[in-house]
Amino acid sequence: MLLVAAAASLVVGGGSVDVGPVWRVLTGDGDPYMEMVLAGRVPRLLTGAVVGAALAVSGVLIQGVTRNPLGEPGLLGVTMGASASVVTVTALLGAATGQMLVLAALPGAVVAVLISYLLGRRAGGSSVVPLVLAGAVVSAVLGAYVQSMTLLRPAVFDSYRHWVVGSLIGASPETLVTVLPAIVLGLLLALACGSGLNSLTLGEEVAVSLGAPVARVRLGAIAAATLLAAAATAAVGPIAFVGLAVPHVVRALVGADHRVQIPVAVLLGAALLVAADVVARLVAWPQEVMVGTVTAFVGAPFLLAAVRRGRVTA
């Protein structure tokens, strides 16, 4: 699926091209026009694949830690933290684009999750329920702040509305390079937490009896999910549904072992977002739709098929 979606991403667009010229450019023997076309499409493809993989793995981790089938990366305040940071920077410095948006959104998302974690830990110790509630409270407060700023400052709203939908239009290598270290670190940390998450799915008491370091596994998984979701959101804006749907489909395909779920989620999340981006280019041709508005339509059939077969589990 990922290979097919990647090939379509390179060939299909505002000016669709044949596979032959694309292949010649990739092998170093193409004409200048095709090189110019691919110079815009290759970064977009790579950014979509990396962001999709990050959101999917983040969703796997959040659902594993909270044991909540409706868990997704925004549950702990990632999305609203990034949004509040972007709005603040825009209000203070004017319209932000490219790397400035990334550098604004990334720390805001991390700080929001950190506040949620500290509030939840203080309220309920090692329990995960206060953490989720704290995330909801932080998201609500930040959401009110974002809404107030966008209503009071039209210039902020005009800049924010393009980012908040989520789009791969104008994706650049510089943006990808900026967020890639956080995503790589998040993926490595996620893989390290796989075995511990398997123990957590059996319940905290059973996990402790098996010798699993519950607090350390939970903290590591939350940190990994935060890095992945924050970097992805900072790069392209909030992308809905990927982090919610992909974990369900992955479980239906490979079972409950997080050590297998994580690498499969990387591939499936990347394929889903790249495919959604291809649809976004075609559905309103010759204009483009933001990929954030398409992901639900692309991802919903996978989730609905799994639900109808009775294979979606918490």
Overview of the molecule:
The chain has 314 residues and is mostly helical. It has a single domain, classed as Orthogonal Bundle (ABC transporter involved in vitamin B12 uptake, BtuC). It has helices at residues 2-11, 19-26, 32-66, 78-93, 99-124, 129-152, 154-164, 173-192, 194-200, 204-209, 214-236, 242-254, 258-282, 295-308. Helix 6 (129-152) crosses helix 7. The chain is globular and about 65 Å long. The protein starts with a helix and ends in a 6-residue tail after the last helix. The mean pLDDT is 82. InterPro entries: ABC_BtuC-like, ABC_transptr_permease_BtuC. Keywords: Cell membrane, Membrane, Transmembrane, Transmembrane helix, Transport. This is Iron chelate uptake ABC transporter family permease subunit. The chain crosses the membrane at residues 41-62, 74-95, 101-120, 127-145, 176-197, 217-250, 262-283, 289-307. It is found in: Cell membrane.
List keywords for this structure.
mainly alpha, globular, ABC transporter involved in vitamin B12 uptake, BtuC, 314 residues
The tally of helices reads 14
- The name of the CATH superfamily reads ABC transporter involved in vitamin B12 uptake, BtuC
Task: Name the poorly predicted regions.
Answer: none
Q: How many runs of DSSP E, i.e. beta strands?
A: 0
What is the terminal separation in angstroms? Answer: 25 Å
Describe what is shown at a glance.
By secondary structure, this protein is mainly α. It has 14 helices and no strands. It has a single domain, classed as ABC transporter involved in vitamin B12 uptake, BtuC, CATH 1.10.3470.
